[in-house]
Write a structure and sequence with these properties.
By secondary structure, the protein is an all-alpha fold. The protein contains 27 helices and no strands.
Length: about 525
């Protein structure tokens, strides 16, 4: 076990992960950067870079054995190399986004100020401030105004009195807007964290807690004074609140508001991560409210944007595009019951998980494994379904998404039943029940279903269909229950029961429902 942990820790070495994330052009840029420094081509940090670049698995013993650096010097050399790579990346034109450009102008202005060249410094600061305000970078804008105030106290002009008033008013307005944005972003982050840790609300007490928390933490604001960033955080706070209380129509409303904020290519270029997340929220909300036509239209539009390179591509957005595009491609097959048509996605997703494993959060890997398991379950390939569910159940590296863990175990029970693995069913039942009790997460839907599936082993074959009808009848009443309905978001138990009752594949049942109620 200790060897496994050591290996995992080594693979997560920050420098190694950074080097492995570099593109070919970024590596070329680093080589040129080191060359321009003069006398550094043979420097130890560059030798370490070339060695780590070729290394497939991070191993300190191998590095020290190369003779490049001693064990005592390794830590300092790694820190120096890490810093040099970051400087090189900062100089790379591909990373010259608006925020870096503004920060660069502020740095230049600070140098000029320190040299006593006040007039030149103020001129640069005015340019940087206008750029910051135009691009909704109000934190940097406030920092610029504060430096302007300092300089104005030393650079005496006849217009100082009027200038001081202007800067004071501007500083106050920016400060107020930044405070609102900070409070809204804090609220949004806390609600999102609660959703990851606890899932959707499970009872009235939890609803009341979330409602109180949301209302208490929501700052007072005048909507007319809110800019792009404040509105985005406001909508995201409402979005996570609506997800938590399972008001998915409200989620759809605020996800739409988020996307509509990006009403120009300029905003998408400046804030590509915010845009991608907003787009994913809209797709997810459309999926949850079963708006199939809207979902398909948004997904097609998303793919066109990616193909036309309308969303800036870097190592961060590339990762997000993978997660959001393929997760929602799976969702489309779930909505339409076309599970077999989606099997080609499994190999692509697995290849990309391997490609991004050093940068991909384990929560998303677990989420994708669960969705792949659902795809195989819908195809009737239950052994493959179990294979992916076991990846989740055996995962010791997840401290979030308890709901997902619970339903992975329930789907595992169903898949074992479908495979006829009766000898293992009792053990699976006991393990699942213990897990749910430990998580304090046992709901009525789960209680009814677990008891029912355990009792199926004692039912005579000719009575099995009637037993499925009874289970279906018991569970159907929870379908629109305010707290219990979340069970059906993770696993369409009702469609599975209907497939057993009607002796049809689950994909056929879902297709029939989709055709009966086109949305």
């Amino acid at each position: 076990m200790s060897k496994i942990i050591t290996s995992a820790n080594q693979q997560n070495d920050a420098l190694f992960v950074l080097i492995k994330s570099l593109t070919k052009s970024e590596k070329r840029q680093f080589n040129l950067y080191v060359g321009r420094l003069g006398g550094n081509i043979d420097a130890k940090f560059f030798s370490l870079f070339k060695f780590l670049e070729k290394l497939k698995i991070y191993d300190e013993k191998v590095i020290i054995g190369s003779g490049i650096v001693s064990k005592q010097q390794l830590s300092n050399l790694k820190a120096h190399l890490y810093k040099q790579i970051l400087i090189s990346l900062r100089l790379n034109p591909a990373h010259k986004n608006v925020r870096i450009q503004i920060r660069e102008q502020l740095d230049f202005a600070t140098v000029l100020y320190q040299k006593g060249l006040y007039k030149q410094s103020l001129k640069l600061l005015e340019k940087a401030k206008n750029m910051a305000l135009d691009n909704e970078e109000k934190n940097i804008a406030y920092e610029i105004v504060e430096l302007e105030k300092v300089i104005e106290t030393q650079y005496i002009t006849r217009s100082l009195s009027n200038r001081a008033n202007q800067l004071s008013v501007q500083a106050k307005e920016l400060s107020q807007q930044n405070v609102i944005a900070s409070k809204l972003s804090n609220l949004s982050l806390q609600l999102y964290s609660h959703l990851l840790q606890n899932g959707y609300v499970k009872n009235k007490k939890e609803v009341e807690f979330i409602q109180k928390y949301f209302n208490d933490k929501m700052p007072k604001y005048d909507f007319k004074t809110l800019g792009f960033r404040e509105k985005l955080w406001l909508y995201k706070a409402h979005l996570w609140y609506s997800f938590l209380i399972q008001d998915f129509l409200l989620s759809y409303k605020y996800a739409s508001k988020c996307v509509h904020l990006f009403n120009s290519p300029k905003l998408i270029n400046i804030h590509p991560v915010f845009y991608l997340k907003s787009k994913n929220y809209l797709l997810e909300a459309s999926f949850l409210v079963q708006k199939t036509s809207t979902f398909k239209a948004e997904l097609v539009a998303f793919e066109i944007q990616i193909e036309n390179q309308e969303i800036p591509l870097n190592t961060n957005t590339e990762l997000l595009i993978f997660m959001y595009l393929y997760s929602n491609k799976l969702h489309l097959h779930f909505l339409e019951g076309t599970f077999d048509e989606g099997e080609y996605l499994v190999a692509i997703i697995n290849d990309k998980i391997e490609k991004y494993k050093n940068r991909l959060d384990n929560h998303y890997i677990v989420l994708l494994h669960y969705k792949i398991a659902c795809l195989y379950f819908g195809m009737g390939k239950n052994k493959l379904c179990i294979l992916y569910l076991q990846k989740i159940i055996r995962s010791k590296n997840i401290n979030a998404a308890e709901d997902l863990q619970c339903f992975a175990r329930i789907l595992n029970l169903i898949a074992h039943y479908e495979c006829g693995l009766d000898y293992d069913l009792e053990r699976q039942f006991v393990d699942t029940y213990k897990f749910l009790l430990k998580m304090e997460n046992l709901q009525e839907v789960q209680k009814v279903f677990l008891t029912s599936i355990r009792d199926l082993s004692d039912v005579f074959p000719h009575e099995i269909k009637n037993e499925f009808k009874k289970i279906h009848e018991k569970l159907k009443k929870f379908e629109n229950h305010p707290y219990e309905k979340r069970a059906f978001l993770y696993l369409d138990i009702l469609s599975w029961l209907e497939s057993k009752i009607q002796n049809k594949p689950i994909s056929t049942i879902i297709k029939e429902k989709a055709n009966l109620f086109p949305k």
